[in-house]
Amino acid sequence: MTKMNCLIGALALTTGLSTAAVAETSIGVVVKIGGIPWFNAMEDGIERRAKELGVDAEMIGPVSADPSLQVQAIEDLIAKGVDVIGVVPNDEAALEPVLQKARDAGIVVISHEGPGLQNVDWNFELASAEGFGEAHAKLLSDKAPDGGTYAVYVGSLTVPLHNAWADAAIAWMDENRPDLSIVGDRYGVAENVDDSRSTALDLIAANPDLKGFLAFGSQGPIGAGRAVEERRKTGEIHVMGPFSPGQGRKMIHSDVLTGGFMWNPAQAGEVFVTLGDMLANGQQIEAGMEVPGLGVIEPDFEQRDIITDNLLEINKSTVDDLADMGL
Amino acid sequence: MSRSSRLPVQKGIRIRPATGENLSLLALLAVLVVVFSIASPRFLTGANLGSMGFQMPLLGLLTLAMLAPILSGGLNLAIVYTANISGLTLAWTLMQFGGAEAGIGAFMLGCVLALVVGALAGAAMGGVVAYVGAHPILVSLAMMIFLRGLGEFLTRGGDISGFPDYMRILGHGSLVGVPVPLIIFGIVAFGWHMLLRRSPHGFSVYMTGSNMKAAEYAGLNAKRTLVLIYTLSGVLCAIAGILMAARFNSVRVGHGEAMLLITVLACFLGGVDPFGGHGRVAPVVIALVILQVLSSGLNLIGANQHLSTAVWGLFLIAVMVMRSSQLRHTFFFLFGKGK
To answer: B3-303: what fold?
Structure first.
């Protein structure tokens, strides 16, 4: 049996790091994938809030974004007998049976970015599609007081979320700034830096009165910003949209990028723990109540959704902190 | 092939005594179970054992689908997407009969069609491997890309979901406390064992895997064997696809992608020779249980996910090292002197 020693050693290594303390409420949060900055930040939030509330919370990030791994992780959590399961779904439909199993076992289920899930107690969002689109539209409106034209990017014409943001932003602009009109239709280039850049170069050349880009899609603001920089239109044409703070840090500081909005994954992690602890202790969610991390909520009792607008502005003063978080 | 001449030869192709291989894996399993039950009082509860029983069969079926091609000296990289396409076939059939309202007849028809699709995908691969002589890795890789593309084209990358309620029993039900998926896996594994060890076809598989030329000269129809083995592998994938549809209540191309490489690992952990010709079902099943115990156990004690991936790797390397006969001799040499 001596040859087994090395294996026992390897296992002892992991058991040593296990959470031994048995706290009042135990919460397990299964996210899309582990090891990426977004979910690392969420894990920080979960751990911080768990310490504050004195509950036992852990995050499980599968090694790949395969829904079957999420199903397995949730099954393990059910077996472990946790009080609350949180989930950020990769594929809503594939999780329904296992979440039903969890609820049948008396476990509270909370989701984030899973508005279509049926077998949940509550789903929460830190940004509504309308709020997110309008926030960007307002930013553009502030930066272009004189009127003119603006262009809209989306990641692709088939990304529902990006198009919902664009719809909201365009609707707001039509209503509040009739002097600022949209150029062409929306362009589905914002998942690609080069396409965003070349489309922006064309648009700048064709539209002398262009005042801004609303770029929904992580690479859109970066690509459009580069085009603005190349044409030396910094300060004249404003670029805004959600992007990775680490990637856009320099461009924000050189004013090529005006900024944008995102939501904070660490805050989402905190809300998982806060909500989970509340629900596990039998507290009911009511309209108008204040939940730490979410603010005053107006839940949708039909769809079991709690949608708030806790947007985080990316600008010169916040970009460094956000980038340092690895986002 | 007469019975009397088959059995002695079969004994001859085992490198290690069968019981020895099983015993060392069982010992490993016992150590893991002891370690985890000390680390977490919840490990040996019915809830956790049940949870493991629900999780293992899917990986298990795919591993068995991988096992036979490896025994024949090849590889089947298309297992996950064959399962997906078969699942899609079932889902499509159910949708034609009203989705959640579809009767049991529609489900049966869907399963038959799924099995046919799985078998066809497998047969196509086997045919190219056997008669064109292309390398199985290339053929199955091409098939994998084709099936994925086809599936994504047909579904536009989306889900098909909303199946009848009775399918839940297949994916999440229990019979006298035993998870239904585990029962299905048990039956399939037993059938697979009988087919490989007790049938002329299984004998041909081992012989073809050991040395295809020699097998042909000896009068075995090696080409037909290859086609058959890939076809059966496709049928197993289809069963896995049906189970996947029942467990997730939805089908999408890409479900289960992460399992592909783990099936290969499970085969090698179970002592299957990567170059073909040697390996049996029982140790592979024990290896699957070991992998499941590791995975669930690490989740249960709340180990960091990143660390547990590393532990998996370490564990597999350790098993390879333990297997190496050269090292074993050095070991005995050193310890023999010491004592």
So the answer is: ABC transporter involved in vitamin B12 uptake, BtuC (1.10.3470)
